[in-house]
Amino acid sequence: MSAISLRTESLCVGYRDRSVLENLTIGLPAGQSTAILGPNGCGKSTLLSALARLLAPSHGRVFLGDADIHKTKTRLLSRQLAILPQFPIAPEGILVGELVKRGRTPWRGLFSPWSATDTEICQKALIAVGMEGFAERPLSELSGGQRQRAWLALVLAQDTPLLLLDEPTSFLDLPHQIEVLRLLQNRNKNAGTTVVSVLHDLNLAGRFNDHIVLLGPDGLVTKGPPETVITPSNLKKAFDLDARVISDPVTNRPMVVPL
Question: For residues 163 and 187, is the Cβ–Cβ distance under 8 A?
Fold first, then answer.
C-alpha cells in the first residue's frame, strides 16, 4: 500500500454565510501521522470535513496526491481515504460485525459475493481494536468507548492508505485513549498509512504524531514537527494559554504544563 498525501491550496471553507477557514494552504506529509490541534470553534472538524470531501470549499482546492478530490470518482476516493466523523450514525439495531462489514463496500461490486479476504480483513480490524468478542452484539447496547472502537474497526476494515479521524479518542478513558493512539501509530509505522487526527490532548498529540497542524481563532498558527509547534509562544497564540513546555521523560517529545 503506497503512502498518500493531502494538501490544500488557498482553501476557504465554512457554513452558509459564515466563513470558518480562510486562504489555508498546508501539506499533510505522506506516510506520517498528523494531529490537528486548536481551541474549540477554530475549524478543526471543518478542515477534516473539507479534506474528506464532505464539505465543499467556497474557494481553493484539496489535493489527494496530485488529484483534485472534487474531480476524483467516488469509488476511487473511498479506496484511498476513510473517515471517522465526530458523531457517526448507524442504522437502528445493527450488530457490530455488520457495521464493520460496511467498511468493505468500496472494494466490492454490486453483485460481488462476500469473500474470505473480506472476512479476514474484518476480523483483523475487530482484533486490532479489541472487539473480536463483540461481533454479534448490537451497537446500541455498547458503552460509548466500545462504540467508538467499533467505528474505528469499520474504518480499519476499509483498508485505505489514508485515515482521517475526528476525535478518535472521544468517550475513551486514558488507558484506551493510549491504546487507540498506539494502534494508529503502529498502523502508520508498519503499514505506511497516512493518519490525520483531530485531537484535544496536547501531550498525547505530541507523543504519538510526527506532524502537527496548530489552528487558532484567526486560522493557521503554524505547522511542523511537535518540537517546533508545541512551544509557549504558539500555545499563547492558539489558546491564549500560559504554559511551560518541558521534555516528556518517556519520549523526549514536548510536554505542556499549564501555568
Answer: yes
